[in-house]
Automatic annotation (TrEMBL):
Protein name in the entry: Formate/nitrite transporter family protein
A GO term from the CC aspect: plasma membrane
InterPro entries: Aquaporin-like, For/NO2_transpt
TM stretches of this protein: 36-59, 65-84, 117-140, 160-180, 192-214, 234-253
Pfam families linked to this entry: Form_Nir_trans
Residue ranges of coiled coil: none
Originating species: Haloarcula salinisoli
UniProt subcellular location: Membrane
Length: 271
């Protein structure tokens, strides 16, 4: 009985995700672009608060447990604004929008269109916010340049294999976030899910291609030691890792698990 109930719940979540994915896949380009731009901007509030905390605590104390915990918690703020505000974030759609394609209800071309629009819009928004941090933060004495560079180096100093693997884990967690948010039955539950998972990504220093763009772009603008090549390396590795993590470890596995568990409620409804 318990397994049947769990399967039914899995089917319900899958149905919700597929319906949401179809809605996004057929959304007009103008609406997608503006929503993606908004998400890229909104997610930047997390890195901004991280910089404020590092500045307040002193960059020399970044290894202390309390500071690390506060920085990780602050990282989740931007994701709360994006997910609860229902803006279009690329990593969420590496899971969400793949499901209708796997279910045969949408084409790969339609998926590529959505990914491209959301990804570009997110990058533009994140880049703009990174610039705002550099201009506004030091001018009002809430974020020191050294804190900005410290945030960027968390990612730029990672080795290739390490960053790619960490990117997979970040995409995996973001895919689970999307799945669990669909299962949550209240705004409070959704808020808790988003904050826990996003904070875990922040505390573990897992590279998220959009939120990390805010940090790395700001670091490149502040430090002459960081340049466009460093940013390009980060963006490539984090994007590939996030996409693989969300698509393979969540979308494919979750879809396969639900569909191949036996006759589903959808099968009986169709009969």
């Amino acid at each position: 009985m318990a397994s049947e109930e769990a399967q039914a719940e899995g089917e319900d979540i899958l149905d919700i995700q597929i319906r949401r994915g179809l809605s996004e896949l057929w959304r007009p380009t103008s609406g997608l672009s503006l929503s993606a731009l908004s998400a890229g901007l909104d997610v930047g509030f997390g890195p901004l608060l991280m910089g404020v905390i590092l500045t307040t605590a002193g960059v020399a104390g970044t290894g202390e447990l309390a500071t690390e915990l506060l920085v990780g918690i602050a990282y989740g703020v931007g994701f709360i604004l994006v997910v609860l505000g229902r803006s279009e974030l690329y990593t969420e759609h590496t899971t969400l929008a793949v499901l209708p394609v796997l279910d045969g209800q949408a084409s790969v071309a339609r998926l590529a269109r959505l990914w491209g629009i959301v990804y570009i819009g997110n990058l533009v928004g994140a880049t703009v916010f990174g610039g705002l941090i550099v201009v506004v933060g030091p001018s009002i004495d809430v974020v020191e340049p050294s804190a900005i560079v410290s945030l960027a180096r968390v990612y730029t100093d990672q080795p290739v294999v390490g960053m790619l693997g960490a990117g997979v884990l970040a995409g995996w967690l973001m895919g689970l976030l999307s799945w669990l948010v669909a299962a949550a039955d209240s705004t409070g539950a959704r808020l808790l899910v988003v904050w826990l998972i996003a904070s875990a990504i922040g505390m573990a220093h897992l590279p998220h291609c959009i939120a990390g763009t805010v940090e790395v772009v700001a670091g490149v603008l502040v430090s002459p030691e960081l340049g466009p090549t460093v940013f390009g390396r980060f963006l490539l590795l984090s994007t590939v890792g996030n996409t693989v993590g969300g698509t393979v470890f969540v979308a494919l596995l979750r879809y396969g698990h639900v569909v191949r568990s036996g006759p589903t409620a959808r099968d009986f409804r169709e009969e």
